[in-house]
Amino acid sequence: MRIALLLVAALLSACQTSLPALPAWQSPLGLDHPEVGQIVELRTGAVLTPAQLVKQLAGAPRVLVGERHDNPDHHALQLWLLRALAQQRAQGSLLLEMLTPDQQVRVDQVRAAINAGQVPPDMLNALAWQPGWPWWLYGPLVQHALRQPYPLLAANLERREVMQIYTQAPQLEGPASSAQPVREALFKQIRQSHCNLLPESQLPAMLAVQQQRDRRMTEALLAAPEPSLLIAGAFHVRRDLGIPLHLEDLRAADGAKVLILAAVGSVVNAASADYLWYTPALPEQDICAELRP
């Protein structure tokens, strides 16, 4: 009898720790790189298995995942992670930078329709999905989330809010997020991401929009059912520049974990995340070439 009970316990344990199969790589570069697929705990330098990563993230009330928006492997791993975490504990909510509050009613209506067995024939129109976020990349994750019992939540600013901030920036409250080294690093990132072509006079407004986006995503996280998972661009989730600083300013930093997905060869500051998952890379495109005189 004792042996039988031990066997049952072992089988139950195996079921609890089983994970979905990892997705096949889709990006073409770096497939033979020694780091591809590695998961690094940045604090210690330890290389983790996917199961070890999931176990550590499963205990966090908030998980922040940073992506490169156009890398298909990042999207595939996000869907894998969401499914894997749901096998370890009930998911409380999923938040996306790609959704704005004016879409939330649409999202809720689509979830209700799907639960009633009425899948909208035109999902993009039903969600008022913004074309700047390619549906072929985001669609699988969104459609999976819409079929789950937990809510899919908007985390970004609406366009009208962005324009208001751009013309009249509010004062950002909090010593961590408003520290001068943080502002200088973000100024540098904004310059580079705009091909060093922005007039200096526009940088303060651009910085205000960036940081108010981070603050909005922070507030959305704090209001969301836990355990929550937020997906956003890598700069938004960085511990040294983004949402974690706002969590600190709002006295809610405890327990949050940051995972950044990055292509092999990327240089990632050890202070910017808790975990780094290396993926293959896409060919680099010089998006600034056609803008240069």
Which keywords apply here?
293 residues; alpha/beta; Rossmann fold; eight-stranded mixed β-sheet; 8 strands; globular
Account of the protein in words:
The chain has about 290 residues and is α/β, with parallel strands linked by helices. The chain has one domain: Rossmann fold (3-Layer(aba) Sandwich). Helices cover about 45% and strands about 15% of the residues. It contains 11 helices and 8 strands. It has an 8-stranded mixed sheet, with helices on both faces. Helix 3 packs parallel to helix 6 and helix 8 crosses helix 9. The N and C termini lie far apart (about 80 Å). The N terminus is likely disordered.
Largest sheet, spatial ordering of strands: 2-1-8-7-3-6-4-5
**Average pLDDT metric:** 93
Gap from first CA to last CA? 81 Å
Question: Would you report the number of β strands?
Answer: 8
Helical coverage, percent range:
40-55%
pLDDT below 50 for ≥5 consecutive residues: which ranges?
Answer: 1-16
Return the CATH topology. Answer: Rossmann fold
The number of helices is 11
CATH class: Alpha Beta
Q: How many structural units, i.e. domains?
A: 1
Rounded to the nearest angstrom, the radius of gyration is 20 Å
* Overall morphology: globular
Largest sheet: 8 strands, mixed
